[in-house]
Amino acid sequence: MFSKQLIRASYLAPRRLVAARFVSFTAESQPRIRLGSEAPNFVADTTQGKIDFHNWIGDKWAILFSHPADFTPVCTTELGAFAKLEPEFTKRNVKLIGLSTEGVDSHNQWIKDIEEVSTGGSKFGFPIIADSSKEVAFKYDMLTESDFQNINSGVVFTVRSVFIIDPAKKVRLIMTYPASTGRNSAEVLRVVDGLQLADAKGIATPIDWSVGDDVIIPPTVSDEAAKAKFGEFKTLKPYLRTTKAPK
């Protein structure tokens, strides 16, 4: 097994692209990922065994987030933050799964570092996908423009992307971060709360909304229907009405 030093060095040094199952990675064959589209399915090895992604999601929500390589500093802090928040996601019927372009053995060594520096020694609970072929990165369009141009001939790293996927396997949120900027795990949790409340109660959430704040009544709901459904509400503009968050 490679030492941590060798693994880190392999990330910094040029690497040969691992042969993929695709005949070619072309723009024409790349799935179009939009909000509301079906999350592409895949079969992959993870730190918790081989999974069929759609079967793994089951009847729950899922959050898929990607990393360029193991033993990278920003990603180590991010995975640790998500690990600490995992109980809150579980309460909301959400499963977490990470992704990196290294193999499972490397992931398992990286998890030891994450547990040491980012989780306070708590066990790291969710799987990390081994995407050395870049298949998942391609299917989910996680690549920068320059990386995509080199996907068949050069070193390729995944963009640091986040996807929230609902139980119907529909993509509900896409966020992509540059390598230098860490993600906000609390924001991902906040969005899950907003999406689930909107789905359940037919409302929208305003800027900087958090659980317990007032929500927005959609313009498609008449005043009469809003009164019957939500009770009292405030009319700030004919198109902007707020009410207490329904329970």
UniProtKB/TrEMBL annotation:
Active site residues according to the UniProt entry: 75
GO BP annotations, alphabetical order: cell redox homeostasis; cellular response to oxidative stress
Statement: the UniProt record of this protein carries the keyword Membrane: no
Sorted UniProt keywords: Antioxidant, Oxidoreductase, Peroxidase, Redox-active center
Highest taxon in the source lineage: Eukaryota
InterPro entries named among the record's database cross-references: AhpC/TSA, Peroxiredoxin_AhpC-typ, Peroxiredoxin_C, PRX_1cys, Thioredoxin-like_sf, Thioredoxin_domain
Function: Thiol-specific peroxidase that catalyzes the reduction of hydrogen peroxide and organic hydroperoxides to water and alcohols, respectively.
Record's protein name: Peroxiredoxin Prx1p, mitochondrial
